[in-house]
Write a structure and sequence with these properties.
By secondary structure, this protein is of the alpha+beta class. 44% of the residues lie in helices and 19% in strands. The chain folds into three domains: 2-89, no CATH class; 100-240, no CATH class; 245-442, no CATH class. It has helices at 2-46, 52-69, 81-87, 93-96, 108-114, 121-136, 142-153, 160-163, 176-203, 231-239, 256-270, 286-292, 295-300, 328-335, 338-341, 408-420; strands at 74-76, 79-80, 98-104, 211-215, 220-226, 244-249, 274-275, 282-283, 306-307, 314-315, 321-324, 348-357, 364-372, 382-383, 387-394, 400-406, 432-436, 439-442. Helix 1 crosses helix 3.
Length: 457
């Protein structure tokens, strides 16, 4: 009888736990349905003339914007939407199907870039040995395997002789353990960056609950994508090399008129502007217009220029604005509208930088860049195939720098780009945006800012 009672106890407990977990799923689905309905009403009210795919895009963007802005709203028994989303029942691969991928992050290139001589035969031999060992011993730390291989192949030679140099964290006097620890720290950072790049790629598939696990010590990333149908496309995108591009950029001054025009046509459109076919005059509801004024500029927060203390001339930042995380969906919906898109030059394309946090109020935001494409193409003047090798180095002042070995064609293109954007006289020059997978990671330039300023506040 006692055993039967224990079985009933565990059965009831299991049922209660299941119901509890299912309750989060029900609450989340119910809340998201309400938000979707609200998004549809809002979009149809704001854009009465939009139909088809563009309408669906606006609704999707509006829904995401509403969900992002209410992520901290309490929707169930003192629990916020974000927490409920994390606790809802995850329908994994067994129930939905999909694909599972295990990826090993390669660190061979990192070790070469950190070394004093990427073509050193002893370095390359140790890397080759460590790579072979890694394949047969997946659980072992790659840097440790490399250390063991190098010290065994080069008795009495310190690792610091391979990696130490002026301005570097690794010093000639450092023992092998200290060098190994430093290399492991750098490697974990590289693995974490790879993980973030994969996250951005996975977002493109629209998977509701991707399961992505990172093992920094082993350099392994496990990805589970439930419900994915085009597995080959996913596999190719996850395994493909990052798309490296070098772009010239527009500054805020050059886009002053296009930005003003885009802001005006968008504000009028949101206010329900109508055009008389006879008089060709546009009528706008003044009440709505006050509410929609500067709709585009408020989203992008234009970065105002600085003044050069020597010449008194205006110096423009590499980015033209900064978009709050919660407003990225709205920005995408605006910039995909023909009336907004057509206000800008044909070769103007907008890209975001990496996520940043404002030191003033902790707001999460992205810097907005306006890059110049090649007319009639979506390509940059210099693509990754023009770079033969890239590695970390140091300039003549001992400061960290990146050195690139380019192909003949790449070298000529790079020379032309840098010459066209080099400082001349009082002109401070222009930055070159270095982009990986459509994310701007750096814009080499003497004058740059990443301060989130609010427009018209």
């Amino acid at each position: 009888m006692k055993l039967k009672g224990l079985v009933w106890f565990f059965a009831i407990a299991l049922i209660l736990i299941s119901v509890w977990e299912l309750s989060y799923t029900f609450v989340v689905r119910s809340y998201e349905s309400k938000i979707e309905a609200q998004a549809k009403r809002t979009v149809k009210s704001e854009y009465p003339n939009v139909t088809g795919d563009q309408l669906d895009l606006l609704i999707k963007a509006k829904k995401q914007h509403l969900l992002d802005s209410t992520r901290d709203k309490v929707i169930y028994m003192g629990t916020t939407y974000q927490k409920c989303k994390e606790n809802e029942l995850n329908l994994g691969l067994d129930l939905q199907g999909g694909m599972s991928v295990t990826m090993n992050v390669s660190l061979e290139g990192l070790l070469k870039s950190l070394s004093n001589n990427p073509k050193d035969p002893q370095l390359l031999k140790a890397i080759q040995t460590a790579t072979a060992e890694k394949q047969s011993n997946v659980g072992e730390d790659y840097i440790t395997l490399f250390r063991d291989a190098y010290t065994q192949q080069n008795p009495g030679v310190k690792l610091s002789t391979v990696f130490a140099g002026p301005g570097k964290e690794i010093k000639v006097a450092d023992d092998d353990d200290k060098v190994t620890t430093e290399l492991q720290t750098i490697a974990k950072g590289a693995i974490d960056q790879t993980y973030k790049i994969l996250l951005k790629r996975i977002d493109k598939f629209g998977v509701a609950q991707p399961n992505i696990n990172l093992d920094e010590n082993k350099g392994i990333i496990n990805v589970e994508l439930a419900g994915v149908s085009d597995k080959e496309r996913v596999r190719k995108l996850l395994q493909s090399s990052a798309n490296l591009q070098f772009w010239e950029v527009y500054n805020l001054q050059e886009l002053e008129d296009p930005l003003t025009n885009a802001d005006k046509v968008l504000s009028d459109y949101l206010a329900g502007a109508t055009k008389d076919s006879v008089t060709n005059k546009t009528t706008v509801d003044s009440t709505k217009l006050n509410a929609t004024k500067n709709a585009f500029l408020r989203i992008i927060n234009p970065i105002q220029p600085q003044q050069d203390p020597k010449t008194g001339k205006e110096i423009f930042a590499a980015n033209i604005g900064a978009i709050a995380l919660k407003d990225t969906g709205t920005f995408n919906s605006y910039i995909n509208m023909d009336i907004v898109k057509n206000a800008f030059p044909e070769n103007c394309k907008f890209l975001l930088g990496t996520e940043q946090t404002s030191a003033k109020d902790g707001m999460h935001f992205y810097e907005l860049y306006a890059i110049k494409t090649v007319p009639g193409s979506d390509k940059a003047k210099l693509e990754g195939d023009g770079v033969d090798d890239a590695y970390q180095s140091y300039d003549d002042r001992g400061q960290p720098s990146i050195k690139m070995e380019m192909t003949n064609v790449g070298a000529k293109t790079w020379a032309k780009i840098t010459a066209d954007n080099a400082p001349v006289g009082d002109n401070p020059g222009r930055p070159i945006a270095i982009v990986l997978d459509d994310v701007v990671y750096t814009t080499p330039m003497k004058y740059s800012r990443s301060i989130l300023q609010c427009y018209n506040k």
